[in-house]
Amino acid sequence: MTVPKAPLWHPFTQHATEPVPLPVARTEGAFLVTEDGRRILDAISSWWVITHGHRHPAIAAAIRAATERLDQVIFAGFTHEPAERLAEALVRLAPPGLARVFLSDSGSTSVEVALKMALGYFRNIGAPRRRIAVMEHGYHGDTIGAMSVGARGIFTAAYEPLLFSVDPIPFPEEGREQATLDALEAVCREGDTAALVVEPLVLGAGGMRTYRPAVLAELRRICTCHGVLLVADEVMTGWGRTGTLFACEAAGITPDILCTSKGLTGGFLPLAATLCREEIFAAHLSSDRGRTFFHSSSFTANPIACAAALANIAVWEQEPVAERVTHLARMQEERIARFRGDRRFTGVRRTGTIAALDLAVPDAGYLAEAGPRLRAFFLARNILLRPLGNVIYVLPPYCVTGADLDRIYDAVAEAPEVLAVRSGAVAA
Ligand SMILES: *Cc1c(COP(=O)(O)O)cnc(C)c1O
């Protein structure tokens, strides 16, 4: 039996076939330390949330201090300093023009909030629109609305009856970007599109697919032309991952709605924010109660999480984080470069601190097996990597060292041989 001893059900885990989950006793910088003392290099930032490194001392201290004064406080009819200061800081740091902050508790929820803001806006201005345009291969979370605007496939098949229909535009492959823009034009011309939801520059779960900032700028232009709201899901890309604080900065654009979560607290605690332009907020102001923004979750604006986010922002402002990001981007480029021209790999790419490459796989059978076998192979070398099918990506915390990266890429270079041996001779 591989099912866990504790009565737990783990996320995205096939308990019938996957190894028993490893017990982590401690985290430290770029490492997870297991109960039996293994130090595992966290090369995917614990699912993309840890930015500076695990347990940054300033954020830990801020959390401890916050618990001396507050725990959860109802956020309707009441407010508190951590939330107010956080909102001010986010408006100051986000692309100019985003003026209001709605706080929630996960990336998925921040997307649900964005969708409701968009539909509510058009209804409240008296010009209701019903459709949402999305980018092919997108991922926006696992709640029903977030799944609806994301790519459909094995992960969503069972829930298809509950998903609403959306208008997908093709992913802007290099050299075929015009087709994406033309598709958006065509969708927008129909006149019923409330919003376009996209991950700016890097589509994470959809295979670390990257596209050029100029394309994002064009998407912005087309949305503006048709009065369609642009929703930038920066849940993964925010907080330096793509080289700038938010990915939208590279394109010089401001979306109408921006979602952020994962790195918002440095990855320490669950918290999310949906930022929007003042017009969207203003459209909900009315003596008619029916125009209220009807959304909440029990832990909206949790003061401890807000304090963690404020401490994260202080780290960005007081430590040379931007320099670390630039340095990491350069170190990643130096190491991924060796795979360009290596015929065992294709699509070698990097955006900011994120590097990815596709393992050339001979057939679909290999493809289906590749993910779990690669994961086991890396773990046997004390490296946490979770390839997306045949896509190997390295998305480390910013404290990772050049030597740590060398260890990762040396293992990546060995990976094709492992898959070439078909009958599972992978050490667990
Ligand atoms: C992870 C992710 C989400 C979902 O965030 P959760 O906190 O897991 O709900 C949404 N959008 C993007 C782009 C993500 O990478």
TrEMBL record:
InterPro entries named in the record: Aminotrans_3 (IPR005814), BioA (IPR005815), PyrdxlP-dep_Trfase (IPR015424), PyrdxlP-dep_Trfase_major (IPR015421), PyrdxlP-dep_Trfase_small (IPR015422)
Signal peptide: none
Catalytic reactions on record: (8S)-8-amino-7-oxononanoate + S-adenosyl-L-methionine = S-adenosyl-4-methylsulfanyl-2-oxobutanoate + (7R,8S)-7,8-diammoniononanoate
Pfam families: Aminotran_3
Subcellular location: Cytoplasm
Recorded GO MF terms: adenosylmethionine-8-amino-7-oxononanoate transaminase activity
Keyword set includes Cytoplasm: yes
Pathway this chain belongs to: Cofactor biosynthesis; biotin biosynthesis; 7,8-diaminononanoate from 8-amino-7-oxononanoate (SAM route): step 1/1
Positions of pyridoxal 5'-phosphate binding: 107-108, 233, 297-298
Keywords from the UniProt entry: Aminotransferase, Biotin biosynthesis, Cytoplasm, Pyridoxal phosphate, S-adenosyl-L-methionine, Transferase
Enzyme class: transferase
Positions annotated to bind substrate: 47, 139, 262, 296, 386
SUPFAM superfamilies from the UniProt entry: PLP-dependent transferases
Known role: Catalyzes the transfer of the alpha-amino group from S-adenosyl-L-methionine (SAM) to 7-keto-8-aminopelargonic acid (KAPA) to form 7,8-diaminopelargonic acid (DAPA). It is the only aminotransferase known to utilize SAM as an amino donor.
Family affiliation: Belongs to the class-III pyridoxal-phosphate-dependent aminotransferase family. BioA subfamily.
NCBIfam families: bioA (TIGR00508), PRK05964.1 (NF004624)
Name of the protein in its database record: Adenosylmethionine-8-amino-7-oxononanoate aminotransferase
Gene behind this protein: bioA
